[in-house]
Amino acid sequence: MGSEGTRCITGAMIAGQFVEVGGDTLMKAASKDGMSIFVFNFYSNLLALSFLVPSTFLYHRKRAPPPISTSILCRLFLISCLSTTVQTLMNTGIRYSSPSLASAMVDLVPAFTFIFAVISRMENLNLKHHISQAKVIGTMVSIAGALIVTLYKGKSLIGDAFKSTEMRASGIYLLDKSEWILGAFLLATASITLSLLFIVQTWTIKDYPEELVVTTICCFFVVIQTAIVALIVEGISKAWTLKADMELVSVLYSAIFVVAMRSVVYTWAFRKKGPIYVAMFNPLKVAIAFGMGVIFLRDNLYLGSMIGAAIIAIGFYVVMWAQAQEEHTSENHLPPSSAPLLSTKSDYI
């Protein structure tokens, strides 16, 4: 892939991070008003499916997609199961914590994706080589940073002044420590599951390169699964009634931009560049989420979150530097020390 194509994918991935954080922020705001996250998952996927189905038919009106084998269909079902798990864990974790913590914990995804890529042989690892050593060190540093974000909040840097005023006026109290830790645990589990999802998605799209078809079928399975989960948790209650306020806005936004459009873009990136390339953009969500959380949700910004996020970023870029060195060396036959940071000329990392 040429530099123009790489820039296109990079721009789309950066836009995807803004889209995700926006969806997290709207969902958090709606859940504060009492919206059920399980019903939210169902409605957002159902609406996304109603958008994806006609889009898929229009795209393939002149060229029918290849037939889907049993193996591919089984993989699509597995993807939907992992996706449902990620959505449920992520949204529940955000409800107990904040979008800022969610974005920090998702920084684990590059590290876990690298581990799964090695296990699945999508990534080569030779511990006798300094490049592989750098990848391992960077991965461990990222995990250490995520643990700091989870277990250490520290001093509140901003937000206390208007937060205390709002608490006295409305009787709203900050989340206690147990809820924060529970939310962090759920988000960490979601990050591990998301990493595994990246590997399975790449495996599938490489064998069946039809992004819209893959996304639509997976969304269909997810609609069924989220409906079952919502019925088990909420039963038949008023939770299924969407209010024409922040609840409806968050569902519409999530369905169109997060579930539908972003999913297609990510699937396309998996096919072109591989799972680690997609995972490498997750650290951008930290800065975006911190800003949006403080501005729109009046979240506190804690010292522990800042320190942990910085450590995660360091570990992440060590891994990316090592990958750039490896790729530059293999394609241009140059010494590893001469490869520039994050240089890439291939279609697959």
Describe the structure.
With 349 residues, this protein is an all-alpha fold. It has one domain. It has 13 helices and two strands. A two-stranded antiparallel sheet has the order 1-2.
Shape: globular
Strand order of the largest sheet: 1-2
Report, as a whole number of angstroms, the end-to-end distance. Answer: 12 Å
**How many structurally independent domains?**
1
The rounded Rg comes to 21 Å
Number of strands: 2
Determine the number of helices (DSSP H or I, runs of at least 4 residues): 13
Helix content: over 70%
- Name the beta content range: under 5%
What is the residue-mean pLDDT, rounded to a whole number? 79
Concise account of the structure shown:
By secondary structure, the protein is mainly α. The chain is 75% helix and 1% strand.
Which tags fit this structure?
349 residues; mainly alpha; 13 helices; 2 strands; globular; transmembrane transporter activity; EamA_dom; membrane; transmembrane
Please outline the helices and strands.
Elements: H1 3-32, H2 37-59, H3 70-96, H4 99-105, H5 108-119, H6 130-151, E1 156-158, H7 160-170, H8 177-207, H9 211-234, H10 246-273, H11 275-279, H12 284-296, E2 301-302, H13 303-332
Antiparallel strand pairs: 1-2
